[in-house]
Design a protein that fits this description.
Layout (H helix, E strand, L loop, with lengths): L1 H30 L1 H4 L37 H37 L1 H14 L4 H12 L3 H28 L2 H8 L4 H37 L11 H10 L5 H29 L5
Amino acid sequence: MRDARSEVRRPLGLRLWLSGGWLTLLVLAAVFAPFIAPKDPLMQDLFLGRMPPFWQSGAEPGFLLGTDSLGRDVLSRMLYGARLALIVALVAGTLTCILGATLGLIAGYYRGWPDRIISRFIDIWMAFPPVLFAILLIAVLGPGLISIIIAIVVIDWTRFARVIRAEAMSQGAMDYVASAQVAGRTRFGTMITEILPNVLPTIIALLTLEMGIAVIVEAILSFVNLSISTDSPTWGGMISEGRTSVHQAWWVLVFPLITLFLTVLSFSQLGEGLKDRFDPVLR
């Protein structure tokens, strides 16, 4: 039994280390981007347009990952693009988690008319196509960081609310909840001290997953020029530009695309790993 348990924990620990290591590296790169970026991400030089990465012939010294069609350093733009992606992931993910998890807890534990109102509101809200709804909100609010965060929160809170509602209903039927109420604890106190700690692993998993989704949404909006200024470095904007010149300068598309993929995958794997590690039932 002990050997089987260790076999399960070994890939779990490796998954946590790999995903956490990549995200830590990304955070450090974003924070210290002004100091480690080799070039100004907005500096243009048409004579250096579409220079290849350093290991290919014809590369220009100082441009490790090459340049785009305007001669801007790809590595520097990726580093500065990570700052925007992580800000959106952290702020939008946290606000979405607070709003959705709170409504889900109330609906799942109190049931009755709060559950009916919140559940009907969730059903109505989920009838709108999320990507089209995000584009519509950005078109109304105008491009910008605040608009992106608002759009993500407005769209994705239902994911938290539905899952946490189901978890709260399941936990609310447990014997320990009835024991807490018999002991004289209020319903609100029971929800905070008994229900919340047991659904917290699920909330953590959803939060990290939502951070990855927020990164994707920001990249999609950047791809269609509905994020921040078109001159500002974003991964989605770089992918959009690289798509048009993939045969002449593949590196403009490939490097930000790989970074985006690894970031979203790391958020997802980190959430699943943390849920497995701290879930009271599994422990």
